């Protein structure tokens, strides 16, 4: 089978998986709905299923898909930026900054939109801090960016520990739940979906340049790619995507780490296919994980980050062992 036809088949399969995951998310819950009732509710029938789907499950499922897609897209871009197929979007301290912001809002007794608002401000502050420190006198490199991100992430981790130490007992549970990933408060998925569409549309036009950059900065420069500008674009898009995902869903690990790498094994390293395929796969995985998180031990809801970690750790170790053998 020609490679292009195979890639298109993979994209169609991932799109089908995304649709199936959404139907499963809308059908599963304390009130189980047959797929026919779900489709009827989506078609506009006015009944109990319509209220359950549109008021409770659809916003959460769309938010999960948007966050999973954002994290996978950020991971794919970071793996090109750092030229490391196992790079993670959280490696630059964005998640830590968002965590500091969200926990600070909770510690101050703020609620509603204040928590995601503070989280987004914290994520942007961490992004600007890492980029400013890594840029320094202009000698920007992947290694310098990575080391700066690790240091900033460690500092944010210390601040998170300090806030948890100072927080009263009645607030600890909510703070820990947010840190482990929580989509129960994602009532408006439109901002995350909008950012996902904008980020993907912003990255796709640079697919050819990203393919060249993946082969090395010197190779890309020799072929006319403006590498410094391209690196800044990748960094900004990946950082904003991570910031919005963490703001919406809390800290959800491993989506941005394992999804792009697995997709790369299926479709190759052509960014024109890898980026949209990663979005579809990442969104589907987080929708399925969130569906399991709210149904496996119902009525108790698990933090979705626990399930993504349980999935991601063995997959990551398998990929790591495979990389070591090759």
Report on the architecture of this protein:
The structure is a single chain. The protein has a single domain, classed as ABC transporter involved in vitamin B12 uptake, BtuC (Orthogonal Bundle). The chain has 14 helices and no strands. It has helices spanning 3-27, 35-43, 48-81, 94-107, 114-135, 142-166, 169-179, 190-203, 207-213, 217-222, 227-249, 255-267, 271-295, 304-325. Helix 4 (94-107) packs antiparallel against helix 7 (169-179). The two termini are 26 Å apart. The model has no long low-confidence stretch (mean pLDDT 85).
Secondary structure: elements and pairs:
Blueprint: H1 3-27, H2 35-43, H3 48-81, H4 94-107, H5 114-135, H6 142-166, H7 169-179, H8 190-203, H9 207-213, H10 217-222, H11 227-249, H12 255-267, H13 271-295, H14 304-325
Helix pairs in contact: 1-2, 1-3, 1-13, 2-3, 3-8, 3-11, 3-12, 3-13, 4-5, 4-6, 4-7, 4-11, 5-6, 5-11, 8-11, 12-13, 12-14, 13-14
Stretches where pLDDT is under 50 for at least 5 consecutive residues are: none
- CATH class bucket: Mainly Alpha
- Helix count, DSSP H or I runs of 4 or more residues: 14
SS content category: mainly alpha
* Residues in helices, as a percent range: over 70%
Characterize the overall form: globular
Number of domains: 1
Series of secondary-structure elements, N-terminal to C-terminal: HHHHHHHHHHHHHH
């Amino acid at each position: 089978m020609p490679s292009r036809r195979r890639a298109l088949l993979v994209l169609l399969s991932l799109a089908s998986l995304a649709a199936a995951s959404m139907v499963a998310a809308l059908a599963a819950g304390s009130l189980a709905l047959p797929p026919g009732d779900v489709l009827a509710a989506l078609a506009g029938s006015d009944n109990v299923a319509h209220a359950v789907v549109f008021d409770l499950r659809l916003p959460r499922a769309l938010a999960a898909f948007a966050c999973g897609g954002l994290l996978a897209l950020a991971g794919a871009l970071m793996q090109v930026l750092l030229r490391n197929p196992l790079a993670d979007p959280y490696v630059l301290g964005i998640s830590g900054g968002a965590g500091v912001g969200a926990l600070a809002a909770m510690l101050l007794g703020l609620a509603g939109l204040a928590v995601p608002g503070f989280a987004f401000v914290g994520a942007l502050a961490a992004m600007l801090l890492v980029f400013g420190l890594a840029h320094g006198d202009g000698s920007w490199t992947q290694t310098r960016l990575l080391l700066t991100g690790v240091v900033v992430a460690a500092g944010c981790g210390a601040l998170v520990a300090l806030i948890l130490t100072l927080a009263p007992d009645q607030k600890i549970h909510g703070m820990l739940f947010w840190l482990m990933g929580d989509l129960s408060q994602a009532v408006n998925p439109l901002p995350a979906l909008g950012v996902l569409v904008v980020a993907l549309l912003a990255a796709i036009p640079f697919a050819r340049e990203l393919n060249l950059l993946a082969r090395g900065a010197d190779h890309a420069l020799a072929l006319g790619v403006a590498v410094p500008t391209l690196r800044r674009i990748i960094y900004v898009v990946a950082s904003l995507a991570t910031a919005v995902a963490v703001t919406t869903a809390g800290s959800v690990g491993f989506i941005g780490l394992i999804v792009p790498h697995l997709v790369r094994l299926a479709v190759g390293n052509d960014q024109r296919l890898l980026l949209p395929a990663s979005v579809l796969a990442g969104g589907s995985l987080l929708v399925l994980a969130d569906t399991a998180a709210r149904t496996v031990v119902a009525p108790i809801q698990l933090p979705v980050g626990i399930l993504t970690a349980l999935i991601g750790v063995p997959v990551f170790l398998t990929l790591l062992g495979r990389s070591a053998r090759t």
